[in-house]
Amino acid sequence: MEVNFTCLTTKGLDISLAALRRQDPYINNIVDVASQVALYTFNNRTNEWEKTEVEGTLFVYTRLASPRHGFTIMNRLSMENLTEPITKELDFQLQDPFLLYRNARCKYRMCFIHTRAQVHTRAHTHTHCSSTALDKHAHKTVPNV
């Protein structure tokens, strides 16, 4: 898997890893970073995407405990970060420049990745992590909503 850390220096990665470990001590390695993402949720009543109060840097990482992969958006708008485990229950698909997913709680969410080049890298990383979580089983995708 190709890893793209162009947005952070080694020192920046070390600082970010330390911050992530304060939240989850089982995180052992950052495998990918998107410098600026915004999170949206799908409103079933209005059939529209709604912007949330979550915006910031997206970190994809490995863990020493199950689940073995996850991602966190370190929120710049508040102290509440978004964290999702990457498991076989996480379904996602790429609709450039968006990464859409449905989590284990069946909530539909969408990450708008501001840097176009980072969109495909994130999708590749999530696919790799999901494949690992599925133990080589078939990969599901989020239905178009």
Automatic annotation (TrEMBL):
InterPro entries: Dcp1, PH-like_dom_sf. It is found in: Cytoplasm; Nucleus. It catalyses: a 5'-end (N(7)-methyl 5'-triphosphoguanosine)-ribonucleoside in mRNA + H2O = N(7)-methyl-GDP + a 5'-end phospho-ribonucleoside in mRNA + 2 H(+). Its EC number is 3.6.1.62. GO terms for molecular function: 5'-(N(7)-methylguanosine 5'-triphospho)-[mRNA] hydrolase activity; enzyme activator activity; mRNA binding. Pfam families: DCP1 (PF06058). It is an enzyme of class 3 (hydrolase). CDD domains: Dcp1. GO terms for biological process: deadenylation-dependent decapping of nuclear-transcribed mRNA; deadenylation-independent decapping of nuclear-transcribed mRNA; nuclear-transcribed mRNA catabolic process, nonsense-mediated decay. GO terms for cellular component: nucleus; P-body. Keywords: Cytoplasm, Hydrolase, Nonsense-mediated mRNA decay, Nucleus, Phosphoprotein. SUPFAM superfamilies: PH domain-like. Belongs to the DCP1 family. This is 5'-(N(7)-methylguanosine 5'-triphospho)-[mRNA] hydrolase. It comes from Gadus morhua. The lineage of its organism: Eukaryota, Metazoa, Chordata, Craniata, Vertebrata.
